[in-house]
Amino acid sequence: MSAENCNDVRLLVMCTNFAAEKHKTQRRKNVDKTPYINHPIGVANILSEAGISDVNILCAALLHDTVEDTDTTLEELEKEFGPVIAKIVAEVTDDMSLPSAERKILQVQHARACSHEAKLVKLADKLYNMRDLTKEKPENWTDERISAYYLWSKQVIDEIRGTNPIIEKQLDEIFRREGLIS
Ligand SMILES: Nc1nc2c(ncn2[C@@H]2O[C@H](COP(=O)(O)OP(=O)(O)O)[C@@H](OP(=O)(O)OP(=O)(O)O)[C@H]2O)c(=O)[nH]1
Ligand SMILES: [Mn+2]
C-alpha cells in the first residue's frame, strides 16, 4: 500500500514501525542505554500533547532522526511516505559530513527559514533532549558540555519563537531553571 492511499492511522503506524526498524540497534547515551526509538516517539508525543494533530508533522517527528543517524535516505522516505513528510525531515536533518561545531552554527543560522512544520519538530526535539539532560547526564558528558547544550538550544529556539506557545512555555521553564532567562 503506498502512502497516498493510506489513512492517517495507518501512516502513523507505518512510520513508527519504519523508525523502530531503522533505529533498532541504537541506544540513547544514558547509563541505562534506553532504546533510541523512545526519543522519536517522545518527540511525536510532545507535539500530540500540545494539540498538534497534523499527521505529516507527527510522522516527520517519528522519522526525524532516521536520515541523520541511520542508513535511511531522503529518497527512501519520499518513496515510502511521500514528499511532504520527506521535506519536513530534510529540514531538521543535519549534514553529518560536517564537524559537530559547524552543524551547531548552521542549525542556529537556518532555523528561522524553516517551515512552520519543521519548526514544530525542532521545538519538540530540543524539549525532549533538554528534559533528558535534566533527568540524567549522558555518559562522558561534562557539566560544561551540558551547559553548552542548553545555551545552544536556546539560541536555536530564540530564532523560531512564535511557533507554538504550549511547547515554548515548557522550554522556557527549563531555560528559567538553568538561569538562561529571568
Ligand atoms: N540529552 C540527550 N541526548 C541524547 C541522548 N542520547 C542520544 N542523544 C542525542 O544526542 C544529540 C545531542 O548530542 P550532541 O553531542 O550535541 O550531538 P552531535 O553528536 O550531533 O553534535 C541529540 O541529537 P538530536 O536529537 O539530533 O538533536 P540536536 O541536538 O541535533 O538538536 C540527542 O538526540 C541522551 O541520553 N540524552
Ligand atoms: Mn532528535
UniProtKB/TrEMBL annotation:
Statement: the UniProt record of this protein carries the keyword Manganese: yes
EC number, as in UniProt: 3.1.7.2
Catalytic activity: guanosine 3',5'-bis(diphosphate) + H2O = GDP + diphosphate + H(+)
Pfam name, any one: HD_4
Residue spans crossing the bilayer: none
Keyword Cell division among UniProt keywords: no
Stretches of the chain forming a coiled coil according to its record: none
Record GO terms (molecular function): guanosine-3',5'-bis(diphosphate) 3'-diphosphatase activity; metal ion binding
Cofactor field: Mn(2+)
UniProt keyword annotations, A-Z: Hydrolase, Manganese, Metal-binding
Matching InterPro entries: HD/PDEase_dom, HD_domain, MESH1
Gene3D superfamilies linked to this entry: Hypothetical protein af1432
HD domain sequence ranges: 36-130
Family note: Belongs to the MESH1 family.
Function: ppGpp hydrolyzing enzyme involved in starvation response.
Protein name, as recorded: Guanosine-3',5'-bis(diphosphate) 3'-pyrophosphohydrolase MESH1
Taxonomic source organism: Laodelphax striatellus (Small brown planthopper)
